[in-house]
Amino acid sequence: MKETYTIDVAVAIIVNKNNEVLLQKKDMGYPWFPGKWCLFGGGIEDGEDPETALRRELVEELKFNIGDEIMKFKVQNYQDETDKKIKKGRQYVYLVDFKGEISDIVLNEGAGFAFISKKELGDIKINEHDFNVLKEYYSSTQFHS
Predict the structure, then answer these.
(1) CA separation, residue 39 to residues 54, 55, 83, 105, 114 (Å)
(2) SS3 track for the chain
(3) Residue 89 burial (CB < 10 Å; 0-12/13-18/19+)?
(4) pTM for the structure as a whole
(5) pLDDT by 10-residue block (mean), the chain, 145 residues
(6) Angle at 142 between CA 56 and CA 105, to 5 degrees
(7) Do 33 and 116 form a contact (C-beta atoms < 8 A)?
């Protein structure tokens, strides 16, 4: 029987001026979706609200400080599995505008990062719930045509 634990997470759809999203490639030693692409973010610690957790995670992972250009996009349930563990909880998804240059990004976690266009999403290995969130983002007329 697999060990199951619950953790809520906050992640960011970080969008540049070309409407591309910033994704992180997990390294092969990472237990959850090794070698796959995913949104930046992470676990919400005790006493943190989701936005505070996201701000902390983006500084830890990218040395990226979010300004006021942040908006909640959606909240959904998620579940991830490995051979031995199940991780589940609520995923808080935020939209964040990236106004800097790619050279401003300092990667502290993972195997790499890239800005990915809507067209490129189907060509990469990405974790399923983040892929579904990005499909919803790109199809949302509220934000982009």
Answers:
(1) 11, 14, 22, 15, 11
(2) CCEEEECCEEEEEEECCCCCEEEEECCCCCCCCCCCEEEEEEECCCCCCHHHHHHHHHHHHHCCCCCCCEEEEEEEEEEEECCCEEEEEEEEEEEEECCCCHHHCCCCCCCEEEEECCCCHHHCCECHHHHHHHHHHHHCCCCCC
(3) middle
(4) 0.92
(5) 94 95 93 91 96 96 88 95 92 95 91 94 92 92 47
(6) 30
(7) no
Q: Residue 13 corresponds to which tokens in the numbers above?
A: 């759809």
Place of tokens 């796959």: 36
CA distance 131 to 59: 23
- Report the half-sphere exposure of 95 (CA within 13 A, side-chain side): 18
CA–CA dist 92, 26 (Å, integer): 20
